């Protein structure tokens, strides 16, 4: 950290000229800017927080910081789970949340231009009014779109529509030097040199700061229905997933959850949606499946076929959530899993491994087999359709350092098993600084060298989001 300089009063005055009334220092900095949504990775206070409103302001701040050797941490809504938006080296946090304008739709080409600070929820609601859908659907609806792109957020509709990466057509980026560049174009194909656009997607704010985006949209599906499928055990629940896919049913979303997490979520919301028993049998696992289509008749056929498939695979029962209220309640329970865990847990850590869908059940069986070796509880749920699993370690009575030590050992085993199964250590939450050690284990020395060399090309002074992804402090 000695490579960086401190922010001087003279620099603060220059920042205030660039962003009048939007510069906070010292005791005026809100505590929210010291951490993200996973506080187990620690807190760090920046020297300055600047809330930019335009690409030009971001560029002016970056130019000053580059010239003066000041570290800069880009930050959206701060909803990340790996410490990626924490200012480990002090310096400047550059917030994009006030860059929140939807700049315009191109309906003929099914695109929308937005500033990076627009919230996912706001675009989803606005696009729906235009009869359009932005398919990426991460669980955190109040994250910024810039943050989603920086982490290549996945979400629940990835099984049918893909991840955030598949919907980014173009972007405006401010480099660490303060230079402004345009990457991509509002077209659907490109074979025009190296894809700097796709290099920026998922780079977690370490290569440049995304300020504007052109995103692909699709027509809003006319009809949507959800199914709640009950199982007596997790193995049969997960084993039904490939059968659904092989039946050409094309679910929009396909989620699995265990009994304990459902009970926690419903208690948190104060509303019961998922049955816990069926004809004398305890329900221990669920699939929550959404299908979309052009009309009700098409969906009726899909529901009938899907019900046959899951019942043959061992499901106890199938409930059809075909009213707006029931669909809303079912997905509200699913979307509240993390909030429920946070509300009921003092110490918490999480991994979002991704494994081949054919090995989900085997992987979760392994996780359950090692849980007894530790003093914390493990809660699991995730995206059954694409193999992205969310595994939470939770404790209310362990000492912090003992919890961290045990979790580290648990995570090493969990990530090693995911790698052994042909998976990866993160499907959508990224690396930040909390998962760095595990990345190097999985990627190996050559891939890590390539990542570090890419970082040095974009950021020769290493001032942008230092200590994240591939570069340790």
UniProtKB/TrEMBL annotation:
Q: Which InterPro entries match?
A: FAD-bd_oxidored_4_C (IPR004113), FAD-bd_PCMH (IPR016166), FAD-bd_PCMH-like_sf (IPR036318), FAD-bd_PCMH_sub1 (IPR016167), FAD-bd_PCMH_sub2 (IPR016169), FAD-linked_Oxase-like_C (IPR016164), FAD-linked_OxidoTrans_Type4 (IPR051914), Oxid_FAD_bind_N (IPR006094)
Name the source's superkingdom: Bacteria
Q: In the record, what terms sit under GO molecular function?
A: FAD binding; oxidoreductase activity
Domain spans labelled FAD-binding PCMH-type: 41-220
Record's keyword terms, sorted: FAD, Flavoprotein, Oxidoreductase
Pfam families for this protein: FAD-oxidase_C (PF02913), FAD_binding_4 (PF01565)
The cofactor required is: FAD
Q: Which Gene3D superfamilies match?
A: 3.30.465.10, 3.30.70.2190, 3.30.70.2740, Uridine Diphospho-n-acetylenolpyruvylglucosamine Reductase, domain 2, Vanillyl-alcohol Oxidase, Chain A, domain 4
Q: Provide the protein name.
A: FAD-binding oxidoreductase
Which organism does this sequence originate in? Faecalispora sporosphaeroides
Q: Source taxonomy lineage?
A: Bacteria, Bacillati, Bacillota, Clostridia, Eubacteriales
